[in-house]
Each structure stands twice: as structure tokens, then as C-alpha cells.
Amino acid sequence: MPRRGAFVVIEGLDRSGKSTQASNLIQRLDDAQIPSKLIKFPDRSTPIGKLIDSYLRSETEVDDHAIHLLFSANRWELASSIVKDLEAGITVLCDRYAFSGIAFSASKVAPSDAPKPVVAEGSSIAPTHQTAPPLLPYSWCRSPDVSLPAPDLTVFLDILPEIASKRAGYGNERYENQEHQERVRELFSRISEEVEAEGVGRWVVLDGGLELKEVEEAIWREVREAVREGVEGELGGVKRLWD
Ligand code: TMP
Ligand code: MG
């Protein structure tokens, strides 16, 4: 059985605390003298990443299909170096991955010009965004990431969109609005079921609304276990999405 580094992904809604946790985690891996590397998607430093950055800041308009493919291409740019690092025994920690790609794109709906219906508080009538048809089919959103290296562990920091929306800096970028984030959260739940059904590594949901330290400890327990499995050869070779 090959020994290798663990491929760990942190996912969640915007402002769920991923980036803070990722940098704390990399520090702990460092302190424990576990060779590790932190990467982040979108990687805004590459030419493709710069275009994505401009799109997210609403400085550029890009067709929804095209931007989806660019997000995926931005991962493919790093795919072979991820595998190389894992095989060299380096634990790769990744802040967002293909699951964000699917969740954020498949949750897009056509902007509605129609005025919103008035729904009384406490009413069970579904709000409009739940009935609007998706702009991009789910299976189409999934396909460009097929064959990317598969994570061994995905930690999903779950937070209610309403709580995330109150955190500092929220609303600066495209997608940072509660209606979209609600749909993204539903999509993540569907993705987690598929990850489990298809055995694409482990998917762990942690409460991102807890105290920072508590979340950090919970992540650390999961990651330490994945690292151990890698060192002891239990992870096997690097798998691919969605083998
Ligand atoms: P960030 O806030 O982690 O930098 O991510 C930027 C935004 O891009 C965030 O709203 C999630 C979204 N996104 C996608 O739409 N597709 C993707 O493939 C990725 C990685 C992120
Ligand atoms: Mg963001």
C-alpha cells in the first residue's frame, strides 16, 4: 500500500469560516511537523484566476457556462501538482474545491423581473427562489471536474445563510446574497449524499456556527486521522472524482 499525504478539502458557504480554519489548521500541521501545503480555489493568481476574480467582483460579465468551465480549468491547472505533492507525502489542504464548483453553479437561477409575492410571516408557502428552474443542469455542472484528484476528507463547515450574512465583509462579491446561498446549501447537501454513495472519500459536516476554537479542534481530530491513514498506507493511491 502506498504511503502518501492526505488530500483534505474544506468547503462551506461564503463567510462560513473556511479560510480562518484553513490557516489555523496549516499552523497545527506545521507544529506537528506534518509536511503540508495550503491551496485555495479559485486560485486568483493565474491568468484564468484573474478573470474569475474580476467576474466575482462584478467587473466583468461572463456567460454562466463559460465561468463554470473556467472555475474547473483553474483546478485542472493545479491537478498534477496536487497528485505530485500527495505522492511525495505532503498533506494538501484545499480551501474550496470541485464541490463548490457544482454547488455555486447548479444553484444559479434566471434572475426574475417579476415582483416577489407577499408571504405572511410563518406561512408555509414556498418562496419564489425554490421554484425557479436552474440555469445549468446539475449533471452538466459535475462533468468538467470528472477525473480530478479526489479528496480523502472533505470537511463541510455548515452555517445558516442568515448567520453568515451578518459576518464582516459579507456581500462584497457576486453570489454573496442569502437566496443564492440557501440554494447553495441545499446543493451541498445533495453533493454530500453522492460523495458518500460513491465512496469519494469521507464527508464530515461540522457546525460552523460554534466557537472558533471548538471548530478548530473538531477539524483537527478529523485531519489527524486522515493523515494517519495516509502515513499507514490505508488511503491507497490517489483516487479520482467520481471513480
Ligand atoms: P472564495 O470566497 O472562497 O474566494 O470563493 C469565491 C466565490 O466563488 C465563492 O462565492 C464561491 C465561488 N466558487 C464558484 O462559484 N465555483 C468554484 O468552482 C469555486 C471554487 C468557487
Ligand atoms: Mg467569498
TrEMBL record:
Occurrences of domain Thymidylate kinase-like (ranges): 10-107, 140-219
Record carries keyword ATP-binding: yes
Gene Ontology terms, MF aspect: ATP binding; dTMP kinase activity; nucleoside diphosphate kinase activity
EC number(s) recorded for this UniProt protein: 2.7.4.9
Gene Ontology cellular component annotations, sorted alphabetically: cytosol; nucleus
Annotated InterPro entries: P-loop_NTPase (IPR027417), Thymidylate_kin-like_dom (IPR039430), Thymidylate_kin_CS (IPR018095), Thymidylate_kinase (IPR018094)
Enzyme class: transferase
One of the protein's GO biological processes: dTDP biosynthetic process
Key word Hydrolase present: no
Keywords for the protein's UniProt record, in alphabetical order: ATP-binding, Kinase, Nucleotide biosynthesis, Nucleotide-binding, Transferase
Pathway recorded for this protein: Pyrimidine metabolism; dTTP biosynthesis
Pfam families: Thymidylate_kin
HAMAP family on file: Thymidylate_kinase (MF_00165)
PANTHER family: THYMIDYLATE KINASE
NCBIfam families (alphabetical): DTMP_kinase
Family membership noted in the UniProt record: Belongs to the thymidylate kinase family.
Protein name: Thymidylate kinase
Record organism: Antrodiella citrinella
Lineage summary: Eukaryota, Fungi, Dikarya, Basidiomycota, Agaricomycotina
